[in-house]
Amino acid sequence: MDRRERIREIAESICGEHHEAFKKLVEAERSGRRVPPQEGGCYFCYTVKNPEDLVFDTEFDAYVHRECIKKGLAEGNPEAEIMSYLLE
Ligand SMILES: [Zn+2]
Q1: Ligand 1 centroid vs 45 CA: distance in angstroms?
Q2: Does the N terminus or the C terminus of the chain have fewer Cβ atoms within 10 A?
Q3: What is the reported pTM?
Q4: Digit-coded pLDDT (tens) for 31-84
Q5: Domain boundaries, position 68
Q6: How far apart are CA 88 and CA 86, in angstroms?
């Protein structure tokens, strides 16, 4: 197997796992469980609702909703201030 093929295989396996992991989170949330950031839920609201609004923050190593950052900013939340670069 050449290098390029190997890289593609690794990339596909990561995407596949991510997809499975995310489906599990959505199922957990449907059943009413809160999803903490260490499991991939939003840093602020502990949910994975509106997944298209989720962005990844490398400072806190957590997913966060853009909407939740905006809400945090309005409330003067210092963590939201740090994450505000994600809104740009
Ligand atoms: Zn949120």
Answers
A1: 4
A2: C
A3: 0.69
A4: 777 888 888 889 999 988 888 898 999 889 899 999 999 999 999 999 999 999
A5: 3-87
A6: 6
